[in-house]
Amino acid sequence: MAMDQINGKVCVTGASGYLASWLVKRLLLAGYHVTGTVRDPGNERKLAHLWRLEGAKERLQIVRANLMDEGSFDDAINGCQGVFHTASPVLKPSSNPKAEIIEPAVNGTLNVLRSCQKNPSLRRVVLTSSSSTVRIRYDFDSKIPLDESSWSSVDLCESLQLMIFALIYLFLRNYVLRKKIWYALSKILAEKAAWEFCGHNGIDLVTILPSFVIGPSLPPDLCSTASDVLGLLKGEKEKFQWHGRMGYVHIDDVALCHILVYEHQNSHGRYLCSSTVVDNNELVSLLSTRYPLLPIPERFELLDRPYYEFNTSKLTSLLGFKFKSIEEMFDDCIAWFDEQGYLC
Ligand SMILES: NC(=O)c1ccc[n+]([C@@H]2O[C@H](COP(=O)([O-])OP(=O)(O)OC[C@H]3O[C@@H](n4cnc5c(N)ncnc54)[C@H](OP(=O)(O)O)[C@@H]3O)[C@@H](O)[C@H]2O)c1
């Protein structure tokens, strides 16, 4: 991509979300004109943080679009050189997960891509996928870090789903686990559908696969991941128990990586975006040493899951990106929770 096409007009779907708000902030700081899509542009409370961002008054536009309404992204996307597709249902409680999680994620992604296809100005699409599309499998050598060539197993997710459904009658807490498996499945199926569609239609697609995102939250309400972290800092174990071993990444790094792969002429394919992988027990030991006054849980039950690390050299070695440390991401996140009065 030539430099004169950079700092043009881009679209961010789901712009008022946790990650997307930070991406909008970084895009505006970098000089882009940003069209953000939201489901309800009339909800002033949910959008006020976006209008407070530097450059927003001059270069931000907010447009209504819903993943489930065919063609509703056409206007927002038309005329944009870049599209950052972040909107997707994230770990919401649901009585009908297929309709409420899988369909908006998969059909919604195709809906957005069909709008991209109609846009003659389009240069590249950056899709926010997830590291859960890489790590949910048992058939790998745990001595070799997982990289972007790895795909989570749809069969494994579906069989876990059935097993968990049965377990729900025994242990209510497995609702948490069930929600997370539906979410992972939605991300796998949506990313696969995007690759297939873009392959057939000649769209330049790059995907970012963040691990668990940590950092200050710009929107007024805590999203699901931020409230899980707050729960951990207040002593709750339930939400993190399922993590077992998990990668973590600073929210600012995730936003910067989206822009890096959009701008970089040679970027292609998938990009695992993760700073550090740790077990729950390593995480709580690090956090309780650093924050002895917080009631962080002491220990988690060990899960029978394969050990893994992530190989992020596509971002670090090839594109020269440097991730913030796990200490820095939690320091920034905890300082923000404290400032907002969440830790009282
Ligand atoms: N947070 C993490 O740790 C993490 C890790 C890896 C990947 N990701 C990915 O990052 C993206 C953003 O997640 P997040 O953590 O920032 O969560 P979030 O704050 O809940 O953001 C999700 C966004 O998707 C939008 N959305 C959901 N259903 C929609 C629909 N039917 N039509 C239009 N928009 C819809 C939401 O809009 P409303 O505001 O209108 O509900 C919201 O803006 C997702 O693709 C997620 O899978 C997140």
Automatic annotation (TrEMBL):
It holds the Pfam family Epimerase. InterPro entries: Epimerase_deHydtase (IPR001509), NAD(P)-bd_dom_sf (IPR036291), NAD(P)_dehydrat-like (IPR050425). CDD domains: FR_SDR_e. Residues 10-133, 183-267 form the NAD-dependent epimerase/dehydratase domain. GO terms for molecular function: oxidoreductase activity, acting on the CH-OH group of donors, NAD or NADP as acceptor. Coiled coil: none annotated. Keywords: NADP, Oxidoreductase. The keyword NADP applies. Belongs to the NAD(P)-dependent epimerase/dehydratase family. Dihydroflavonol-4-reductase subfamily. SUPFAM superfamilies: NAD(P)-binding Rossmann-fold domains. The keyword Membrane does not apply. This is NAD-dependent epimerase/dehydratase domain-containing protein.
